Amino acid sequence: MSDHAHSGLPGWSLAWSDEFDGAAGSPPDPAIWQPEIGGHGWGNDELQYYSDSSENAALDGAGNLAVVVRRVDPELRGRFDGCEYSSARLVSKDRAAFSYGLVQARIRLPPGRGIWPAFWMLGRNIDEVGWPRCGEIDVMENFGKDPTVVHGTVHGPGYSGAGGITASYRADAGLADDFHVYAVHWEPDRIRWYLDHRLYATVTPDDLHGHPWVFDHEFYFLLNVAVGGTFSTDPDPSAAFPQAMLVDYIRVHERSS
């Protein structure tokens, strides 16, 4: 990548990125991303089946990763655990993990009531300590209820699920209308959330009501689009499918020494 891609961030250097460049229809880099598969509701009574098909996650040939939600043909639902929708959930677990820095993703969200896109991070020690003790940092979520609102959240022991420490920001226009940059600046005792370089939330250990801060180790990335579920809503019957979340890049910057 050329210097101009991050020259707007004085004091930072690019440590890692995925620019999602490649031929249309090809899978995201398997050295980084692996699909998680299944249709069991994912703890939130979600309606989608996550597949490993390029129909649900592939490069678009224009420099983006497309994570695509489709309505499943009723006659084919047996192949998708009976689920009405198919989508994808991609994780960099055991392939790409980081601690601290400025994490940015330029994303165009999918529109539609009940469509729940997310870019988030989990502690890579999840297999040893479980969730939520591993920690979770949600960089971007839109619950498919209001097209202008982005949510940033942390989950940990004593503040998980509906008890997560969360904040939201209302943009001037629908987030599916264009690409936006969703970011966290993650430090040892502070995590800050940004939409298009505008700070909208900060969490420190003092905000956790005495519960442990579990964000001082490596985390890996997750990209997914859910449908419905506890925090979202059922899709409107008029909702159009397919819908795609387009990811232009994910970049991790570290402080220049």
Automatic annotation (TrEMBL):
Keywords: Hydrolase. Gene3D superfamilies: 2.60.120.200. Residues 2-257 form the GH16 domain. SUPFAM superfamilies: Concanavalin A-like lectins/glucanases (SSF49899). One of its GO terms (biological process) is carbohydrate metabolic process. Pfam families: Glyco_hydro_16. GO terms for molecular function: hydrolase activity, hydrolyzing O-glycosyl compounds. PANTHER family: GLYCOSIDE HYDROLASE FAMILY 16 PROTEIN (PTHR10963:SF55), GLYCOSYL HYDROLASE-RELATED (PTHR10963). Belongs to the glycosyl hydrolase 16 family. This is Glycosyl hydrolase family 16. It comes from Pseudonocardia cypriaca.
